[in-house]
Amino acid sequence: MNDSLHIALCTSLDEVQKACDLFQQVWSGGPTVVPMDLGVAMVHAGGYCALATYQGRVVGASLGFLGQRGTQQVLHSHVTASTIAGTGFAMKQHQKAWALEHGLSGITWTFDPLVRRNSYFNLVKLAATGIEFLPEFYGPMTDDINAGDLSDRVLCLWDITKPDESTTSDSLRHTALAQHDGNPVVHGIQPGIENVIELPADFEALRALNHPSVPKWRLAMRECLDPYLNQGWTLTGMMKKEALILSPPQESA
Q1: C-alpha to C-alpha distance for 166 and 204, rounded to whole angstroms
Q2: Which of 65, 104, 160, 231 could cysteine-pair with 47, CB 3.0–4.6 Å?
Q3: pLDDT, tens digit, for every residue of 14-61?
């Protein structure tokens, strides 16, 4: 596929419109994801907007803008959509190249930590780090994917100056959130060591079915991450694509 996949920055009204149309296609049923005029303004102001095509059809799009994390200037990737396998990773590499060319050292974006495939892509394949928990970050969402669920998200930071390699460790670990008969069981965070947070096998399917375990998982995840990610703890990887690894703050030298 990669031989025929083409990714390029949007430079015309037509290209920005195609990006906005794809966002709407993926998150259908809700309000406009990115209004056309906003997309055009962001591109004109120096933001990032790219379109991926495969065999002449649009299969991916991404939109971002400059952001700040402390003293670090980053690209904040607001929305990225893809419709065929492999496009998302290729678009992240395109973002990385753009950010490096503009003198940036990191890229941030938000993701739903309960979705296994998203967590694995971000924390393992890209080796980004979860650094902040954002409860109800987008407020009530009514699109076909998120309707009826809380919009809790994790903000991750991808240090693009380092190799894209996730790290593994043999550290002592405590299971803070376990899965039992499809429901979450919170055992609490053990300070000073890595904590394991098990995830449902397919949270997206549960949400599509309005399964009664969905709000239980959402609140259990909030209980485990909310007080900690905002106090120096980080999400640093996964175990067997099934559980998040929450690591304690590193002691200052």
Answers
A1: 25
A2: 65
A3: 999 999 999 999 999 889 999 999 999 999 999 999 999 999 999 999
**Which is it for strands 57-69 and 72-82: parallel, antiparallel or unpaired?**
antiparallel
Alpha-carbon torsion (37, 42, 45, 46), positive or negative: negative
Number of residues that this document lists for the chain: 253
Strand partners for 77: 64
Strand partners, 67: 74
Give the three-class secondary structure for 8: strand
Give the end of a domain, one of 159, 185, 207: 159
* Structural domain total, the chain: 2
- The rounded distance, in Å, linking the Cα atoms of 217 and 178 is 10
Residue 165 lies in a domain: no
Give the domain extent around 20: 5-159
Run of H or E including 207: helix 203-208
Domain of 97: which CATH number?
3.40.630.30
